[in-house]
Design a protein that fits this description.
about 160 residues, mainly alpha, three-stranded antiparallel beta sheet, 6 helices, about 60% helix, elongated
């Protein structure tokens, strides 16, 4: 039930932010559409802990801040390599182990790798992810296991 209420609040908030209409008739139509979509999603049985990861709680915003900092650092590194032809670009593939136990954790880890400039997740295996990196530094950054550990902590 908590996931259903979370979906309804999220839909209502998104509708309010994006519609820009606050008169009674439009608010009524918005409320009706949010309730309809929530009931439809509940009937389809697609509201679960993966679609609304409430169990991650306050750890999720902390992870987003950390990931944003990593994205900025990787952006600067890739931009420097593009601007300075003396800096090496060594594209290569490698596999990195992952310790996540849930599908949601694995997807968050793979998407985090892809969001970080210079690396792209290509394939998720049972316990590994195939990654393409522009540089050896990109591989070395993932090999430390910091991102993997943070995502594993996030999914607990």
């Amino acid at each position: 039930m908590l996931h259903t209420v979370s979906l309804l609040i999220g839909l209502a908030g998104a509708w309010l932010l994006m519609s820009g209409h606050y008169d009674a008739m439009m608010l009524t139509f918005g409320a009706i559409s949010c309730v309809f979509v929530t009931l439809l999603a509940r009937r389809m049985d697609i509201i679960d802990h993966e679609s609304h990861p409430l169990h991650m709680g306050w750890r999720l915003p902390h992870y987003w801040v950390w990931l944003l900092i990593e994205i900025i650092k990787a952006n600067i590194d890739v931009a420097r390599r593009i601007i300075d032809p003396k800096m090496p670009i060594e594209p290569h593939l490698f596999e990195i182990p992952m310790t996540q136990k849930t599908d949601l954790g694995r997807v968050i880890f793979a998407n985090s790798i892809t969001l970080t400039p210079g690396t792209v997740s290509l394939d998720i295996g049972n316990d590994t992810i195939l990654v393409h990196a522009l540089t050896q530094a990109g591989e070395d950054g993932l090999a430390t296991g910091e991102m993997d550990a943070k995502v594993t902590e996030l999914e607990r």
